[in-house]
UniProtKB/TrEMBL annotation:
GO cellular component: cytoplasmic side of plasma membrane; lipid droplet; peroxisome
InterPro entries referenced in this protein's UniProt entry, alphabetically: AMP-bd_C_sf, AMP-binding_CS, AMP-dep_synth/lig_dom, ANL_N_sf
Keyword NAD: no
Pfam family, one: AMP-binding
Name of the protein in its database record: AMP-dependent synthetase/ligase domain-containing protein
PROSITE patterns in the record: AMP_BINDING
Amino acid sequence: MDLETSAVISAAALAAGAYLNAKLSVGIDLKNLRHDRQWGQRLGAKIASLGDTCTIYGIFDAVDPNIEALWFEEKTWTYGEMKRDVVRLAAFLEEQGIRKNEFVAVFTTNSPEMVITILALSKLGVVAGLVNTSLRDATLKHCLDVANATTIISTPDLSQFLLSGSTRHFALNLGSFDNVPAPTDPSIFLLKTDTLPTPTVISPPAKATLAEIACLIYTSGTTGKPKACTIRNHQMCVTATPTSQDMDNPKKYFPVRVYSPLPLFHGTALFTGLCYSFGTSSTICLARKFSSSRFWKDVTDSRATRILYVGELCRYLVNSPPTPYDRAHRCIVATGNGLRSEIWENFKDRFGVPEIREFYRATEGLAKFDNIDSGAWGAGKVGFAGPLRRYLETDTIILKVDPETEQPYRDLKTGLCVRAKIGEAGEVVGRVKNRAFLAEYLNNPSATNEKLIHDVVKKGDSWQKMGDLLIHEETGWVRFHDRMGDTFRWKGENVSAGEVRDHIAQLDGVLDAVVYGVKLAGYDGTAGAAAITIKSGAHQLFMKTLYAGLKKTGLPAYAMPRLVRITQEIEANATFKKAKNELIKKSWNVADPGNQDTLYWLDGQEYKPLDAMSWGSIESGRAKL
């Protein structure tokens, strides 16, 4: 073969490769597959290095004691300084007879005290039940009862909300709560720096396997009472392993200083914040709670290079007034989940954060996707997988769903499940590779089994249902579509609440929106309702143009919200998820004295104010919705 022919063949091969890469994203898939393999090797090495102490304490204890571990309200602690307090608290708890595998409820505000408590319990091999601090009364008692906690550890600002009883109760204040009155209940024992022992001989940490329970994280309770998810030591090690994105450019990303205003009882803060910081010999910068006005000052003062977000946090920041700290910080990465597409680029542009890492996960879930920021075209997506990645993927898949039963569709011949087509909404599931590492619901096997599905790809396999509908687009991007159960039927058509919400969010003047279904007597199906917050003083003009605006975005007539609530604020819970259940409970009767919102109904192709007469017409089923 002559040189000219060789050159032509080489050029053709390069052109073909470039075409395949552009058309099929082969290069991206190969890179991601390589990243997965390298990460798996690092995970194996980390587990091996821990020996028989596969705990978050074991990970923490391996870090150089001179490195900064924690920043909190202008104060810092090195790993060595923090270990001193961890050892002292662990020694005290051991003196009280607390032993390995017991359950201790942790009801604490974000603080050094909370971090020290988690580590001290881990050192003893005790399971920390991380209770949502916004819970009160019967729901709070339920969370304590589920774990059968032998002891409660609180911070003094929260101690009063725990009913005195037979369970031992310690309130911990190592300096972060000096401005809070000490508990007056005589059954609560106040622990301070001078009451903790200083052991002359430090007992070794408890031995623990990967399958043993490290802690409990409770579900939000949106579909009933909160359930306790058993988080295994394996998951703590997984989330403490450096990502391939960071390892590709360690000089740029390490050491990490991650700022989190998210509560440590939530998986994002615990895993992506605490575990990842300790696993990479880095620093976690904690805020007591989220404050939009203080957020960027904290990020600047703490010298954070990374921030955590979840749900609507970024929307609150974008909608907040400007501050001198908006771009005075060193943050180069924002990582979390639930960042909406209409906020994504606005957030990056306003605050100068160049990289967003959106991930799809659930505390107890196995399925996962990652969207490592690639520009505006990936805004609002949860992950990416080209044809090669889809073909080779064996752990996370999207299943075709029967629209009537909302159950995975099965092939009539094989009895196995069928994958959703490209562009088709389906339920995402994650493969159960090792049942021993599965995050189950404590003392609730029926709830655990409800999330499992068998005979999916082959007979005898087991997968975990996530309860979410996702769509794999032809471009390779994966996007969140809706939560299972948030799709309702109206006029014989399936309506996706999430899809309608996305159409509303495109309109000028919209600050926030939630869409949900309401049952109305006299009407078949479920009527769509929307709660919307808009820029002040503009709601009348907005409502006059709402129908035409939604039609212009491509929303079909049957999916138009039949009822609209203009409200000042849409409440979110402690983890920045919209309190949709509270909206569903709200009355549409304008005569109700507690109704402070402005209400509208869809009359033909026009939204009109909802008055007593029109509501009476709807209640009786006479109105043509």
